[in-house]
Design goal:
Layout (H helix, E strand, L loop, with lengths): L1 H6 L11 H57 L4 H4 L1
Length: 84
């Protein structure tokens, strides 16, 4: 019965690789990984710059409107006929 249990176990293939070839392949994979990381960082940096620019414009418009409304409220507080 013990032999039947051993027959159903999956067989794992074994590969023998030369150490120099393995190091060469790993070095190439490291270079590829560095290029991918650099590209990803550049892409996210550009996206961050564009989002920051858009938010800056939106905040600037809001601040400008608040300043204009404050000016109108304080300068023409008693004379609404001039404003309208």
């Amino acid at each position: 019965m013990a032999d039947e249990a051993k027959d159903t176990k999956p067989v794992v293939p074994v590969a023998v690789v030369d150490r120099d070839q393995y190091r060469e392949i790993m070095a190439r994979l490291d270079k590829i990984e560095e290029k991918i990381e650099f590209y990803s960082a550049e892409k996210f940096m550009r996206a961050g710059k564009s989002v920051g620019r858009d938010l800056g414009v939106a905040y600037g418009v809001c601040a400008g409107l608040i300043i204009i409304l404050a000016y109108i409220l304080f300068m023409y507080a008693g004379n609404w006929a001039k404003v309208i």
